[in-house]
Amino acid sequence: MQDNNLIGAPMLVVGAGIMGVGIAQVAAQAGHSVMLLDARGGAAEAAKAKLAQSLEALVGKGKISAEAATQILARIAPVATVHDASTARLVVEAIVENLDAKRALFQQLESVVGPDCVLATNTSSISVTAIANGLQHPGRLVGMHFFNPVPLMKLVEVVSGLQTDAAVAEAIFALSKHWGKAPVHARSTPGFIVNRIARPYYAESLALLQEQATAPAVLDACWRGAGFRMGPCELMDLIGHDTNFAVTQSVFEANFYDKRYAPSLVQREMVDGGLLGRKSGQGFFSYGPDGAKPAATTFTAPAFPAVRTLCVHGRGAMAERLAAGLATAGQVFARVPDSDWIGLDIDGHHLQLTDGRAASSFGPKTAVFDLTLQAPPGAALAWAPSASASPAWVAQAAQGLQALGFDARQVADTPGLVVARTVAMLINEASDAVHQGVCTAQGADDAMQLGVNYPAGPFQWLAQWGATGVVTLLDHLDAHYRGERYRVSPGLRHRVWQHAA
Fold first, then answer.
1. How distant, in Å, are the alpha carbons of 83, 117, 276, 356, 358 from that of 480?
2. Is 349 helix (H, G, I), strand (E, B) or coil?
3. 11-188, which class in CATH?
């Protein structure tokens, strides 16, 4: 690649679907002359006409000027064949997710475009190295993975295959920034960054449903309480269970059936039954005209239960929050900061932050509660009492959590509960990605916040929680389930050793 500067270069977008036309719009907004090609006759022209309507709506809302809309459309030209695009210096492919189709397209393009033309694929899951196999110049092929909707989503994964020229990746990185995007470098491994690290957000929720730990609405409420815009069940309904299951299956197969990525029997049953989510009108929730809508709830904290003695155990953000809540409630309490657990001793009973062990493993006087991620007052919080707990202690524990400002949602006594086990797995997966050179820690944080709107990145959570706490919880999950799913990443365990040194 002789000239690394692609800013303003003429380009070809192949594929006039939602992703392709979104890429064309962003490029045209940045001043590129964009040729738009689709194998379906008339599809490119129809996509441009639909874009014109969308831009007109934006003009009507005052989002862009009429002049800007006219200029964007003027820069996009439908073309009939790849041979019309010989002047392109950048090609972005957004066709069907099929390896053979992508290979054939790029091999055809090599006979048309010049030697300095960069070839980019918008694949979300196929190996960039595999797509480049058979090209005369595989070094100029790079992944340029956008997120839907392209004009709004900032993240672009710049994915390098084994033969991708570093200068090509840097050129796409610089171009993405010029387009107003937030690019992150990634190595071509199954799922890249986002689709790999995000798997536990779906998988742990599906596992909890398979264990009948709670209902989808409770899971989603707990995640919204933790700061997420959408719970996993609602999100899977939005994505489509067929699509979500296919991505999970692809990552599972590509990782040689590593059980960490195993698909869910719950989701397969839904796909087999046509319960695909919003697109079919029914998934975890109903979306028809008679579908039940979540009832609006208001939270009012009750008085703290009458107790004889109170003591806050442990250190860190959760211990401080408990202490602050007790002080606000006018309670007198002691502190044991050097305790080996975090939570409250209430008249000899323990209400403690989960460490990955079931409450029942501690005996009848214990209840566990979930990781809060600094949830606001009134946020839903999962908790579980020991199976042998007395009714009086169950009522007292629930009232105590409510009095401290949590919308306490009792779930089955499942190790790690809801948020804690999943966040630990997200951190673990991100740690493994960094350990294997897929991305940097900062790249992982940026990707998850910008690509799937997480309220924080996995390494930001790790800094708050501490590697020892995360590893302890995962080790307890691993001991309980006795499988490969919860094994700790070497990269994460090294952080514990480094901290102890």
1. 60, 54, 32, 9, 9
2. strand
3. alpha beta
d(CA 493, CA 133): 36
Compute the mean pLDDT over every residue in the chain, rounded to the nearest whole number. Answer: 95
DSSP label at 338? T
DSSP 180: T
Which of 174, 141, 169 is CA-nearest to residue 6?
Answer: 174
- Which residues contact residue 164 at a Cβ distance below 8 angstroms, ignoring those fewer than 6 apart? 128, 132, 138, 139, 141, 142, 188
Q: Where are the domains of the chain?
A: 11-188, 196-272, 310-410
pLDDT at 91 over 80: yes
Place of tokens 């730990």: 213
> Residue 144's pLDDT is what?
98
Tell me the whole-structure pTM to 2 decimals: 0.94
* 415-464 pLDDT tens trace: 999 999 999 999 999 999 999 999 999 999 999 999 999 999 999 999 99
Q: How confident is the model at residue 65 (pLDDT cuts 50, 70, 90)?
A: very high
Q: At what angle do helices 458-465 and 441-451 cross, to 10 degrees?
A: 110
Cross-strand partners of 164 = none
Parallel, antiparallel or unpaired: strands 310-313 and 343-346: antiparallel
- Residues recognised as catalytic: 124, 145, 157, 195
Q: Rounded to whole angstroms, what are the CA distances from 481 to 183, 229, 259, 352?
A: 38, 30, 12, 21
pLDDT of residue 1: 47
Are 143 and 115 a contacting pair, CB within 8 Å?
no
d(C-alpha 328, C-alpha 106), whole Å: 65
Distance from the first to the final alpha carbon of the chain: 47
**258-296: per-residue pLDDT in tens?**
999 999 999 999 999 999 999 999 999 999 877 665 666
CA nearest 110: which of 78, 145, 86? 86
Which pair of tokens denotes residue 443?
A: 């790249």
Residue in the structure block whose two tokens are 């299956």: 249
Classify each residue of 361-379 as buried b or exposed e, where b means 16 or more C-beta atoms within 10 Å of its C-beta: eeeebbbbbbbbbebeebb
User: Residue 291: what pLDDT?
Assistant: 67
CB atoms within 10 A of CB 341: 15
Report pLDDT for 501: 56
Of 239, 162, 226, residue with least CA distance to 194: 239
The string of pLDDT tens digits covering residues 199-235 is 999 999 999 999 999 999 999 999 999 999 999 999 9
120: which strand partners? 92, 142
Per the DSSP assignment, residues forming a β-bridge with 408 are 381
Supply the DSSP symbol for 347: T
Question: What is the DSSP-derived secondary structure letter of residue 390?
Answer: -
Angle (CA) 37-39-44 rounded to 5° is 40
* Assigned CATH class of 196-272: mainly alpha
